[in-house]
Structures are given as structure tokens and as C-alpha cells.
Amino acid sequence: MSLDDNDYWQRWIARLLAILAADPSDQLAWASEHQVRTAAVADDVEFILHLAEGMAERGTLEPEALQDLKTIDRFFAEMDVRGRAGRWADALTVDVTWSEVRTLARRILVARLGEWRLPLPRRVPPQHIYD
Asked: I need a surface site. Which of 47, 101, 105, 126 has the fewest CB within 10 A?
């Protein structure tokens, strides 16, 4: 896949947003099942923000969506997500900012796809990537 394959990257972004937008109980179950570390979620957000900036420059992503992604990234910085060594499931229960992240992710998905309730991805990178 090349960086120019816009459909591929839009699907990739939608998958991560589906996780961020999910109801808290679904997020907890998914995060526990996959044992995802909080820092890995932050890395994914940073990556999709980079993709989104390129898409916005090409006119394939709305400015509002880009702004919401930047706000999500800012929330991650404020929560010091990268500095947390623990599992995302634990972080979800501690910081109320996750609710704000969830709201923004839902708004982006509704604007782009008309729906925020998407299936959560079944496949994740191998565990060693998260360790």
C-alpha cells in the first residue's frame, strides 16, 4: 500500500476511531482482550494524525475532522498517555478525559460515515509491538 491509497488510509483511521468511539464497556473488553498498552494507543493516534494532515492537504479530509483529531492528540498529551506504562484498560477507568476523546471520535465517524458504531477490529499487531 502506498501513502497515496486514500481508501486504505481512511479505513485504517476509521478502525482506530471505532475503538476510541466505542462505549466504555466495549472499549474495556477490547483493550483487555488484546492487552493493548496505553502508549500504543497514543502512538496510533499520532500516526493517524500524521495521515490526516496529509489527507487534509489533498482535500480528502474535512478541516473539522482534522481539528478534532488534533484535539484528541492534545488530550493524549495532557493525560501524559505516552508516559503511562500500563494497559489501556486500566487507563480507561482512571481519567475522565477518555469520555471527551470518545465524543470527538464519534463526531468524526458520524460526519464521515454517518454512523459511529463500527465493529471493533479483530486483528491487532503482534503483542511484542505493544511491549
From this structure: 126
Q: How far apart are CA 26 and CA 18, in angstroms?
A: 10
Give dist(CA 67, CA 124) in Å, integer. Answer: 27
Q: Give the torsion sign (CA, 94, 97, 99, 101).
A: negative
Q: Assign 131 to helix, strand or coil.
A: coil
> In the structure grid, which three cell numbers stand for residue 21, read together?
468511539
- The one-character DSSP state at 93 is T
CB atoms within 10 A of CB 9: 20
Going residue by residue through the chain (131 aa), what tens digit of pLDDT does each one get? 444 566 777 888 899 999 999 999 999 898 888 888 888 888 888 899 998 998 999 998 899 999 999 999 999 888 876 666 677 777 787 778 889 999 999 999 999 899 999 999 875 554 444 44
Neighbour-count burial of 3, counting CB atoms closer than 10 A to its CB (0-12 exposed, 13-18 middle, 19+ buried): exposed
